[in-house]
Write a structure and sequence with these properties.
Protein name: Probable ATP-binding protein YbiT
Largest sheet: 6 strands, mixed
Distance between the termini: 50 Å
Organism: Muribaculum gordoncarteri
Strand order of the largest sheet: 5-6-7-3-8-9
Keywords: ATP-binding, Coiled coil, Nucleotide-binding, Repeat
CATH topology of one domain: Rossmann fold
Family: Belongs to the ABC transporter superfamily. ABCF family. YbiT subfamily.
Radius of gyration: 31 Å
Number of helices: 19
GO molecular function: ATP binding; ATP hydrolysis activity
Mean pLDDT: 80
Length: 658
């Protein structure tokens, strides 16, 4: 559909793309990946026609429409939300205006047999079909569905866009873009300002309703679920994989291994050739062979290898000073702004060493509760911070608090202590501040670079309670992996406010959901929480059904059968069909819940057998010291398995009661 032909881009004599060619096909869902600075955003701008390449071309067939969502944009604030979103359907007004113009031309002509008159008739017929197709959908319903899917409430529709933050205004632009249904969607980091529920809605939209999609995102779960093709930009070239991101990672590793082997073989060939030239350079009898080898050496096309050294850095937090057993105790905590109650009666306890997540739609109070914990704003109720708790806080605006007049290196050097000072260059390199970048002044950095720098500062502080508010928004996947591993190994307490499911998976053991003015506790990881939330939604649907069936049963009894309208039997049939579909879905969910319990029981039995085997070996007395570490690890594994079994059993019992 769209053909990228021999594309090259140079900045300051440095090649960003070198003779790149590929095709975007209809229904392709492409993840555009690569290191920061590889040129992903530039590629999207070139396809969108907003930037011109140094050479090469982008061929877009006539009639193919392109929609582009950049990371940052200028947004007008003169209309309400619904008025702004209604602009997505301005094309229908344009088609009506064109239809009127063509009809005026038709009325003024009398050359009924001419080819031009027939062409005009054909244009009017085609335009009429396009208008009918565009108006066949309920525009108002589509706007409402899209806005609610992206997290807006109906009460927000008539509010001026000026009242919303930049992140919410970006959602308005995304809604407009999705409603135009372009042939090709270009999305640059669309999830940065979305919560988990909105991301899941966007995932479903892109999978089921979008045409071709080219996507840049650092949200691994999101691109894994949406895409079926991965294009990697590396060292000015592209590598095209017809698979989603997870499979691409495996194939890429294989390619890098092949690349390294080819590089090593070539280096050996070059070394052997150079040694031959050096050895026989001044021997007249070998002059012909020497000249031949020199020409051979000049013709070799040097193999380049991707630098992936950041993945080898094992970043660790300083040991956490011991705090009290309960770093945070909340009792009936509430916060209101005027008449708007953000949340109330929040009661929970976070134990020392726990890693928990705050999740929920934007505006439901996650960051507000964090500010209460930090004692930055007043609140109602009781909020106690435990003995000897030292908090490390990463706020969403943390980057703005950095000193812009000092360098990147000095920013970190001033907070680093002990042996870590000898590794500052390595740490900066892992967070993409290698080489000359470490000598830049902070004030010239982009917003994303400042965010990463603020994160490094936090990683070096000796604290025992980490509070991270959306820490991954500007981090690429490699850097997120480094941060995630560092947090997992941190022996203190962690509160993470995040919408990144993949980042939270395996990191947190408890989730607090914010919504409807409440804070609910859910034991288990992020995917256990999401599954339980789906189950809860289904239960609510089932509970609403008896009333529906009861009403339909009463309706025919209230009147004589002869007086029934012809539509009544059809309505009853529709109700029965809907109920049957829901029953099938319920049976499917019940089997899934039962299977989770069974799998958990089998896992417990397997671990208990492993423990019994280890204990039998210990009882012999002739064992290696490491066996006691194995025994302790298995017991911890058993505790986790028991917790998962307990959670699965509770879910199953709740489901059966509903």
């Amino acid at each position: 559909m769209i053909s990228i032909n021999n594309l090259s881009v140079e900045f300051s004599a440095k090649s960003l793309f070198d003779n790149i060619s590929y095709v975007i096909n209809k229904k392709d869902k492409i993840a555009l990946v690569g290191k920061n600075g590889a040129g992903k955003s530039t590629m999207l701008k070139i396809i969108a026609g907003l930037q011109h390449p140094t050479s090469g071309s982008v061929a877009v067939p006539q009639g193919v429409t392109i929609g582009y969502l950049p990371q940052h944009m200028t947004i007008s604030d003169s209309l309400t939300v619904i008025e702004e979103v209604r602009k997505a359907f301005s094309s229908i007004d344009e088609m009506h205006a064109r239809f009127d113009r063509l009809n005026e031309q038709l009325a003024s002509r009398t050359d009924y047999d001419s080819p031009e008159y027939q062409k005009l008739i054909d244009n009017i017929t085609t335009l009429t079909e396009h208008i009918a197709m565009a108006e066949s959908e309920n525009c108002e319903a589509e706007m409402e569905k899209t806005l609610i899917g992206l997290g807006f409430k109906r009460s927000d529709f008539n509010r001026p866009t000026a009242e919303f933050s930049g992140g919410w205004r970006m959602r308005i632009e995304l809604a407009k873009l999705l409603l135009t249904r372009p042939d090709v969607l270009l999305l640059d980091e669309p999830t940065n300002h979305l919560d988990i529920e909105s991301i899941q809605w966007l995932e479903n939209f892109l999978i089921t309703k979008a045409n071709a999609v080219v996507l840049v995102s650092h949200d691994r779960a999101f691109i894994d679920n949406v895409t079926n093709r991965t294009i990697e930009i590396s060292l000015g070239k592209i590598y095209d994989y017809s698979v989603n991101y997870s499979k691409y990672v495996v194939l890429r590793q294989e390619r890098l291994e092949q690349q390294r082997r080819a590089y090593m073989n070539q280096q050996k060939q070059i070394q052997d050739t150079e040694e031959f030239i050096e050895r026989f350079r001044y021997k007249a009898t070998k002059s012909v062979q020497v000249q031949s080898r020199i020409k051979q050496l000049a013709k070799i096309e040097r193999i380049e290898v991707d630098e992936v050294d950041t993945s080898h850095l094992n970043l660790r937090f300083p040991p956490a000073p011991r705090s009290g057993d309960y770093p945070v105790i909340a009792d009936n905590v509430g916060k209101a702004y005027g008449d708007h109650q953000v949340f109330d009666h929040a009661t929970f306890t976070i134990k020392r060493g726990e890693k928990v997540a705050f999740v929920g739609k934007n505006g439901e109070g996650k960051s507000t509760l964090v500010k209460c914990i930090m004692n930055e704003i007043p609140y109602t109720g009781s909020l106690k911070i435990g003995h000897n708790v030292k908090i490390g806080y990463f706020a969403q605006n943390q980057a703005q608090l950095l000193d812009g007049e000092i360098t990147v290196f000095d920013t970190i050097d001033r907070v680093a202590v002990g042996d870590i000072r000898t590794k500052i260059r390595d740490i900066l390199g892992a967070f993409m501040f290698g080489g000359e970048a470490s000598d830049k002044k902070v004030k010239v950095l982009s917003g994303g670079e400042k965010t990463r720098l603020a994160m490094i500062r936090l990683l070096l502080e000796p604290v025992n309670l980490l509070i991270l508010d959306e820490p991954t928004n500007h981090l690429d996947m490699g850097t997120k992996d480094i941060l995630k591993q560092a947090i997992k190994e941190f022996n203190g307490t962690v509160i993470v406010v995040s919408h990144d499911r993949e980042f939270l998976d395996g990191l947190v053991e408890k989730v607090y959901e914010f919504g409807d003015g409440k804070v609910k506790e859910c034991l288990g990881g992020i995917y256990e929480f999401l599954e339980k939330k789906k189950l809860s939604s289904l239960n609510e649907l089932e509970k609403s059904q008896p009333a529906t069936r009861q009403e339909s049963a009463k309706a025919p009894a209230a009147s004589d059968k002869k007086e029934r309208t012809p539509e009544a039997p059809a309505d009853e049939k529709a109700v029965r069909k809907l109920s049957y579909a829901e029953q099938r879905e319920r049976d499917k969910m019940l089997k899934r819940a039962e299977r989770k319990v069974k799998d958990a029981e089998e896992e417990i039995a397997r671990i208990e057998q492993e423990i019994a085997d280890v204990e039998a070996r210990i009882s012999t007395g002739e064992v290696e010291p490491e066996i006691f570490d194995t025994h302790a690890a298995l017991n911890k594994k058993l505790d986790n398995a028991m917790s998962l079994w307990e959670l699965a059993t509770i879910e199953l019992e709740d489901f059966k009661k509903s």
